[in-house]
Design a protein that fits this description.
Distance between the termini: 46 Å
Strand order of the largest sheet: 13-12-16-14-15
Largest sheet: 5 strands, mixed
Bound molecules: iron/sulfur cluster
Strand content: 25-35%
Shape: globular
Number of domains: 4
Length: 390
Amino acid sequence: MKIKILLKQHVGAHCKATVKIGQEIKKGELIAEPEGLGANIHSSVYGKVIDINDAIVIDMANEQPKYFIPIADTSCNIEAVKDAGVVGAGGAGFPTHVKLNAKLNDGYVLVNAAECEPILKHNIKLIEEKAELLIRGLKYAMEMTKAKKAYIAIKPKHKKAIINLGKIVKSEQNIEIKFLPNMYPAGDERVIVREMLGVELEPGQLPSAANAVVFNVETLKNVALAIEKRRPVITKDVTVGGRVKGDVDGEVFMDMPIGMPINHCINLAGGVEKNSGEIVVGGPFTGIAAHENSPISKTTGGILVGMVFPNDNRKFGILACECGAQEDRLAEIVAGMGGTVVASEKCKRMVEVNGRYRCDKPGECPGQTETILKLKKAGAKAIIVGTCED
Ligand code: SF4
C-alpha cells in the first residue's frame, strides 16, 4: 500500500522534507520539518520513500512492527510537544507548542469536547474509553501555561462520557465539567469562551484576549502521548459515516496511520453502499469534497460518504455561513446537481475582519428572510444554505 504524508497538515507553510527518494524509513522517524510556523512531520509506517511532491509518498513495508522511533528525551514538556509535531486535531491545525507558550497566570485552559458536527463521535469515544488520557494531557497543558483553572466544555447529551469524566474530575480541585448548549456551532472557539467564561470575543479576537487557550480532546491526548510515551503524531482518530454498509450514524476508528488512503477506513466500515455519491472529509457542515485516495492527515476528523446529488438544473442562490459551508463548497454542490449559481450572499451576521469574513455572534443565528428575498430578486429559483439555523 502507498502512504501519502502531506507536507502541509497545519497552519503555516509547507514543511521541508528531510528524507530522500529511495530512503528506507521507520515508523516515528522525522521526515519533514517546518520552515517558520508549522510542525514536525513523522512517518506513520515502515517503508521506502518513492516520491516527494506536496507529500512524501511511502511504499509501505509488509512487516509493520509496533515499535516506533521515539522523539528525543527532553525534560522540557513544550519541547516534547514541539518535537512530536502536535497540532490542533479538531481541524484548525494550529501548532500546539505555540499555544502552550502562552502564559495564563490566573487564566484558563478550555477543552473543546463539543464534537459539534453531526455524525462525528471519535472525541466522545475517546472520553468514554480513555478519559484519564485526556485529563493527563490537560494537566500538562495547565502546568505549561500556568493556568489556574480548566473547564471541559461538553454537551449534556454525552452522558456516558460525562459520567466517565466525572469519576476522574471529582478529585481534581481545578478542573470542572461545564455544559455547552446542544446546538451547532457550540464547538466554535468563541462560543466556547462565551459559554465557559461569559466573555464575548469580537470577531477575529483570539481566546487569549480572555486569558484562555482552547484545546481539542485529541490534541490533549497527543500532548500526553508526546510527554509520556515520546510518541510523535503518527495516527489520527476518525469517524466514518454516511452511505457506508456499516453504521450509517458513524463508526469510530482510533489511531489510523496518517497518510493512509481514506478508502482504507471506508472499507473497514464495510465499504460504500450502492448509489453512493461524493466522499467528504470533515463534518457534514464544514467538510470538503475528497476522493477515495485522499490521505488521512493530522486534522482529518470525519470521512463521510454522501448520497448521489439529485438532478436539479434550476438557477440557485447561495447563502453562506462562517461556521458552515462557505460559498465555494455550496457552489460545488450546485454544480454537482447540474444547477447554475445566479447570486451569492452571506449570513447578515458575517463581518469582514482583516480580509476574512467572520461571524459576529456564532450560534445566535438570525432569520434570513431579507437575504432570501434578495436572492430571489436576483433570479434564484432555489436557495442552497450553509447557515446553521433560520
Ligand atoms: S449567525 Fe450566521 S454566520 Fe453566525 S453561526 Fe449563525 S448562521 Fe452562521
